Amino acid sequence: MMGQDLQQDFAKKIEEAYWMNPDKAQKHAKEVLARLPDCLLPNIREWIRGTALTDICIGDYSIPMILAIWDSHDFLGAARVMTELEESPAGALKKIWNMRR
After folding, report:
1. Which residue among 5, 10, 62, 98 is the one 20 to 30 A from 90 at the CA level?
2. Whole-model pTM?
3. Whole-angstrom Cα distance, residue 69 to residue 9?
4. How many domains does the chain have?
5. DSSP letters spanning 64-92
6. Torsion angle of alpha carbons 5, 45, 73, 101, nearest 10°?
7. In this structure, are residues 53 and 64 in contact, taking their beta carbons and an 8 Å threshold?
8. End-to-end Cα, the chain, rounded Å
9. What burial class does residue 4 get, using C-beta atoms within 10 Å of its C-beta: 0-12 exposed, 13-18 middle, 19+ buried?
10. Do the Cβ atoms of 31 and 83 come closer than 8 Å?
11. Could you report the per-residue pLDDT of 15-57, keeping only the tens digit for each?
């Protein structure tokens, strides 16, 4: 599952999980995958398959950790924050902990 296939499968999962129309889901999939660090691609594949998410850390955080902190199932939000964690750690840390409130 690489490239275009990954994007299509990711968009379909987004459409189902977030009750989103196909065009909007496709847009979200493309945006997330364009910025997502390659090391997190296994998490995308796991989420698509519905299997347990591996703890792949950037700094001290992983997508499963962020979801646990937030007590949420917002995979897209967590993936975006992980991307920001690599690009701008201070801003991402605020998002991680502000979502807890």
Report:
1. 10
2. 0.91
3. 27
4. 1
5. HHHHHHHTS--HHHHHHHHHHHHH-HHHH
6. -100
7. yes
8. 37
9. exposed
10. no
11. 999 999 999 999 999 999 999 999 999 999 999 999 999 999 9
